[in-house]
């Protein structure tokens, strides 16, 4: 069973990926990348989002074939060899631009895109795709599973929600199960609601995908990777108890990685959400939050965590 970490905008940056690598998932994605940012050589995209901590995969989104082709060429030049096409992002500003899940309605466009990418880069990349189960009048995820088989994609990841659901309600893993039962030759990755080991066991025991993609469950809890990996390896269900000191030390390491990558000012802004995710189960979290909110610099935050958490 493959374990993959999802591309999460503003979250899976270089520093967080360095933390994730310590838990050895099979595939780690960078943040999702707009093909236009690559086309116009956006410096932040080039220097931050695509800074490699290892052998990451990249997920790209757009709405023009030529932009996708140019983006893939640039990514290959930067040393990436696994590129994923996003047909799953449900965010409204992405949808309004005709990207992400909006492409589910454009079946001919996607088919032509895959044909061009396979023809142009057949031996250079592992090509994959991520979808949602529906958008507006589209409700046939099997169409894209068949495309994945027809064009020999490396894998297809199915998030068991429609675009309209965003992240509300429950992901429909019965669709993932049905797709795997009907298309045994396609590597199908399941995604949605995998926030703890109990749910991971329940969903994978039933649907039997080839792998899982973890996203929100990793926020402040990269140890979920180890729990899932151990379960798939041994078949023994064991939720680990991570000690306070281990959480604290991992958080400190993450902050220092972020300072190394972005400098103190940016790290002070970007790490706040991660800090509260790591410490969310601490019994005195409200006091910790209030104290950290009052700090002015990331060095002040580090000093507080070392001495008071």
TrEMBL record:
GO terms for molecular function: flavin adenine dinucleotide binding; tRNA binding; tRNA dihydrouridine synthase activity. InterPro entries: Aldolase_TIM, DUS-like_FMN-bd, DUS_fam, tRNA-dHydroUridine_Synthase_C, tRNA_hU_synthase_CS. The active site is at 89 (proton donor). It catalyses: a 5,6-dihydrouridine in tRNA + NADP(+) = a uridine in tRNA + NADPH + H(+); a 5,6-dihydrouridine in tRNA + NAD(+) = a uridine in tRNA + NADH + H(+). This is tRNA-dihydrouridine synthase. Keywords: Flavoprotein, FMN, NADP, Nucleotide-binding, Oxidoreductase, RNA-binding, tRNA processing, tRNA-binding. Catalyzes the synthesis of 5,6-dihydrouridine (D), a modified base found in the D-loop of most tRNAs, via the reduction of the C5-C6 double bond in target uridines. Its EC number is 1.3.1.-. PROSITE patterns: UPF0034 (PS01136). It is an enzyme of class 1 (oxidoreductase). FMN binds at residues 7-9, 59, 130, 159, 215-216. Belongs to the dus family. Its cofactor is FMN. PANTHER family: TRNA-DIHYDROURIDINE(47) SYNTHASE [NAD(P)(+)]-LIKE (PTHR45846). Residues 5-297 form the DUS-like FMN-binding domain.
